[in-house]
Design brief:
elongated; mainly alpha; 121 residues; 0% strand
């Protein structure tokens, strides 16, 4: 079974990559950035989100994902709606980590209880 925390966090980062990329499409028309600059900047942030989802197999990958939440919120400088979108994804990120930790703890408790029952039998 895959770790629930990793699955939730990776899913959040993958969906966030789509949101950031589409934010770049908006930025090319509504921001002070040129078309190329907007697409390059937002595409890189989206790619970093996808790379970070792969880095979650390492404990420090969650730190990278957390830093990316700040970066995504920072893209609101060019597209003001990204403040809201980035903030929303940051809340989802925190929820994914908290709920994932709780699920992993509960699964470990159930496994320990089942192992103790097997030992008694």
């Amino acid at each position: 079974m895959r770790a629930p925390k990793r699955v939730l966090a990776a899913s959040t980062l993958c969906f966030e990559a789509f949101a950031v990329f589409f934010g770049g499409l908006v930025a090319k028309d509504l921001s002070s950035l040129s078309h190329g600059q907007a697409l390059l900047l937002f595409s890189w942030v989206a790619i970093l989100c996808l790379v970070a989802s792969g880095l979650l197999r390492n404990p420090w990958g969650y730190g990278v994902g957390s830093v990316l939440q700040v970066v995504v919120i920072g893209t609101g400088y060019w597209v003001h709606m990204m403040y809201f979108v980035g903030g929303l994804f940051a809340l989802i990120w925190v929820a994914a980590l908290v709920i994932g930790n709780r699920l992993e703890r509960e699964v470990a408790e159930i496994d320990a209880r089942l192992a103790a029952e097997r030992d008694e039998a």
